[in-house]
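Input record (one chain):
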Amino acid sequence: MPVSLFFLIAWLSLLAAPPMAIATFFIIRWLWPHAIRNVVIGCVALIILVACAMRSDVSFTATVANFAGLSAAYVAYCFVAISAWALRSRPLRILTLVATAIPVVAGYALGMVGALALIFIVGDYAEPPIQTASMADNLECRITGWGMATTDSGYIVHLYKHWPAMPLLEREVARIVVNETNPVDDTASASCDDALAKR
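The corresponding structure, as predicted from the sequence alone:
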C-alpha cells in the first residue's frame, strides 16, 4: 500500500477521533445512558491491550493493521477523555477534562502544524523494507531505512519472531539502529546475522 494512504489514516485519526468520540459519547448518553460505563471499560481495555502489545514489541504482520489498531486505541482514548463529562463533581470534571485534553491538543498540533513531521514519521514506518530475509527458528529479518536529507539517516535491522499458530502476529526480538551520517558506538554497519547474534 502507498505511504500516502498510511499518512491519510494517521492524519484523519488525529483530526477526526476527538469530534467522533464526543459525538458518540453524547449519542450513547442520550439513547443508552447506562451503557456509558461498559463502553468506557471496553475502551480502557483496548488502550491497555495496545499499550501492552507495544511494550512487549508485539505487532500485526500487516502494516495497515498496526495503523488501524493505533487509530482505534486513539479513538478509545478520546472517548475515555470526554466521558469525564459525566463526573458529578464539577471541579474534578474540569480538572480531568483539561488533563486528558493535553494529548488531544498535541495530536491536533501534529496533524495540523506538524503535518510535515507526521509525513516523515509515517514514511519511515510504512516504507517497504530495503531487504527481507528468512532466518532459522521462524525468524524473519527486515532492514528498513530512516531519516531524510535534512537530518541524520541510516537503517534499522529488525529481527521478528513468527508463530505458525498465530500467523497475523509477530514480535520484534532484536533491533540494531545504524546511523550512517554520524555513527554511534562504532556501529557503522549491521547485518541480519548481527541481529541474530544479538537476540
